[in-house]
Amino acid sequence: MFVENVQEEFYNIIKGKHVLLFVNYDVDAICTCKMLQSLFRSDSTLYTSLTVEGVQDLIEGYCKHSEQVKFVLLINCGGTIDIVETLQPEEDVVFFVLDSHKPTDVCNVYSRSQVRIVGNVDESEKIPRFEDIFIDSETEDEDEEEDFDEEARAKRKQRKLWEENRNKTLFEYTQFSFYGRASALVMFEIVWRLGKDNIESLWWALVGFTYQTVLGLVTERNYSNELPVLQLHLTRLMPTSNNSSRMEGYRITCQKDLKLVLYRHWTVQSSLRHSISTAVKLKLWSQKGEKRLYQLLAEMGLPISDSKQNFTSMDSELKTGFLSMIESIVNNYDLDSLIYHSFILTIGFSNSYQAADYVYGMLALLDSTLSEKTSKECFLLTLDSLSRYKHNIIDKGINSSKKLLTSVMRQVHTLLDMKQIFSAGPFLYFILEEGSVDSKIFSCPSSLVILARYALMAFNSISRNRRTAMLPLIASAPSTNDNCIILGIPPSTEVIPRNFFGKAFDQAVETIGINPVINYFDSSVIKICKEDRPKFFDSLVTILS
């Protein structure tokens, strides 16, 4: 069931109680968790927090802690599975779900009280009607007791038609996975309605919201539609110039900016080379692309020497006019998408961060392959990076993300040069073998999806076969203990990023009779034994042909 009155039907119920909190391993979930922690501290609410990567983690965590609590809160996990069927809880345990993964499982939607979905119904989900999915148990019993007369045969025929329609309806509802509104935005609205919002919680919401855009999980229209309301919240919360908070130097602005990765924290050349739009449009993996890059810099009026300096070290006039320089050449290179409205956090007099900078920094902090830390330590460090006076942590994350982006572009160059992106018929694919350069980095789903998006767009930009632009891509990278991670992304031409690989992966696993090592909450990502990968791919080809 959906919770309409979030204060009475959600927060007041868990306020002051012991809550078991499950948080998915993603940036949006972490931003949401940060807001919840602030709320729980203010109301002396005791909670146990557990991080989860997949369904198996959720089951294990719940089994271990289920005796201690009656209220469970799931952040970006659990919404797409039948929670009651999966976890087998006692009848008095209540689950609150805040999950951007879609579609929501129909059993959760129509649960009468045990499962409560926080937030409004997402119209884009097109949730089936109750009577099309569920049948009254008394009617079912009556059908079984009917004699074999004419009336009974008619009822059985009607029941068969209903079941056929049910199966069709469920298939159409679940065939694509996609992302709904960021959980951080939903949580911020709850905090606002409770009268406990502030400029920090707004920033956390903005970062969680931007995360979806950075990874291409939602459309540009989704981003644009949220901007006006967020700008109103910013106007309301941003202190006036004589306020002491402003004097402390924590300021957020919404302004026209550039979709160039980390350009405030890198050199202009490096940012241009590692931004997906410029890398693909200019084909920067080729010698001609190099010439185009220098031609672009010349047309901008930016000296080569300055473009190789850190942005913060450039001449102040060049920094001030940098946006205008880019605007002057975007039409010449079909780079209009570089200009957009973004939120900028300024700390003190010199530290400025686009919301996307925080996203890249947090993604790098979360990736345990980029450090010597455990997954849990990485999660806690990433959570801590959102703290007001710990921007040194996000700075370290941003430096690590430069290494990640450098590895991404190096790997894309290798895939193109070595012609390692293949067509399997219904989809394109590439496999990073163990021992290859940087392969370890891409064992993290978020890193692999960034690589997959770059690789697909780059491949389509040089392919002479127009059909390839209509094909999705599967990427695979080695993981630990002879396992491998596999993920699928929709075609780069898709306006709405709906993904059919989740359903296909489920069918392939069932067909070849294997158990996934991890069933991620994003169903288009899966971890299996490496030895099962060939038959898994063969099964996918059969299913999707």
UniProtKB/TrEMBL annotation:
The keyword Cell cycle applies. GO terms for cellular component: DNA replication preinitiation complex. Pfam families: CDC45. GO terms for biological process: DNA replication initiation; double-strand break repair via break-induced replication; mitotic DNA replication preinitiation complex assembly. It is found in: Nucleus. GO terms for molecular function: chromatin binding; DNA replication origin binding; single-stranded DNA binding. Belongs to the CDC45 family. This is Cell division control protein 45.
